[in-house]
Structures are given as structure tokens and as C-alpha cells.
Design brief:
Number of helices: 6
Structural class: mainly alpha
Mean pLDDT: 92
Number of strands: 4
Radius of gyration: 20 Å
Number of domains: 1
Order of helices and strands: EEEEHHHHHH
Distance between the termini: 33 Å
Low-confidence stretches: none
């Protein structure tokens, strides 16, 4: 794998025991997907999909739970670690990537609001829900 920002990089074929090694555009190292272009788009997609799967698991299996505190504990222990693991390496700078990751938490907070108030939060802003449930944005947590 060659890491570069160049449009036309110079490639060298590496040999091991006379066989040319296969070149890759991305690699997973310690749970973080690294791309040859120094972008983390593949990693963002992977962690968001994994977090949505975990969140779906929580929502499907917690229908009989009465306390929303239990749901918060489940979210904080099963979903959020996937969204924060090694974030010092891949922390997004573009607003589109920040929003893409933040949507998982927005969905969870809307679900919590629905469970507590029995009304879907159409007109309630994300910031109001953050304050009412005592959460921080994922951006703030990465900065801290």
C-alpha cells in the first residue's frame, strides 16, 4: 500500500520469495480503516453502519423496558464506543462527515424522546434533546 496525495503516484512492485505482492487501496489496522489517499470515508461508513446495527438491536430488544436510563446505559456501552474508538486518528473535519456520524446519536435521542413523551419529536431540535437528556454532541466528546 502506498500513502500519497498525488494524482499520479509512483508505484514500486514489492517482491517476496519471487512473487509480486498484491497492492491494496485500503487496510484495517487496529480497527481503523486506512486508505491510500489519507481519507477515512471507508472508516466512517464502517463505524456508522456498525453503530446503526447495534442501535437497531437495542431498539428491537428493549420494547418492554420501562426506564429510559436503561436505554441510555445500553447506548453508552454498545453504540457510542464504536463511534468514538480511535477518534484521535480519524476525527472528521468536513461537516458532511460530522453530520453523517452524528445522525446515529440523533436517531437514538429521537427514540428516547418518543419513549418518554409518546410523541415523535418533529419540531424539537437536536440541541434541545441533547440538553434534556444530558448528552454531549459527538464532536464535543472528541474534542474533550
Amino acid at each position: 500500500m502506498t500513502f500519497t496525495h498525488k494524482a499520479q503516484p509512483v508505484y514500486y512492485n514489492y517482491n517476496l520469495d519471487g512473487e509480486v505482492l498484491k497492492r491494496s487501496d485500503s487496510v484495517k489496522d487496529l480497527g481503523v480503516y486506512l486508505q491510500s489517499s489519507f481519507k477515512f470515508n471507508l472508516h466512517f461508513t464502517h463505524i456508522v453502519n456498525k453503530a446503526y446495527r447495534k442501535l437497531g438491536f437495542i431498539i428491537r430488544n428493549s420494547k418492554s423496558f420501562v426506564k429510559t436510563e436503561t436505554l441510555k446505559i445500553l447506548y453508552n456501552s454498545l453504540v457510542r464506543p464504536h463511534l468514538e474508538y480511535a477518534s484521535i486518528i480519524w476525527s472528521p473535519q468536513a461537516n458532511c462527515h460530522i453530520d453523517y456520524i452524528e445522525r446515529v446519536q440523533k436517531k437514538f435521542l429521537r427514540y428516547l424522546y418518543l419513549r418518554e413523551n409518546h410523541v415523535y419529536p418533529y419540531l424539537i431540535s437536536y440541541n434541545v434533546m441533547l440538553i434534556s437528556f444530558k448528552f454531549q454532541t459527538l464532536v464535543q466528546r472528541r474534542i474533550n
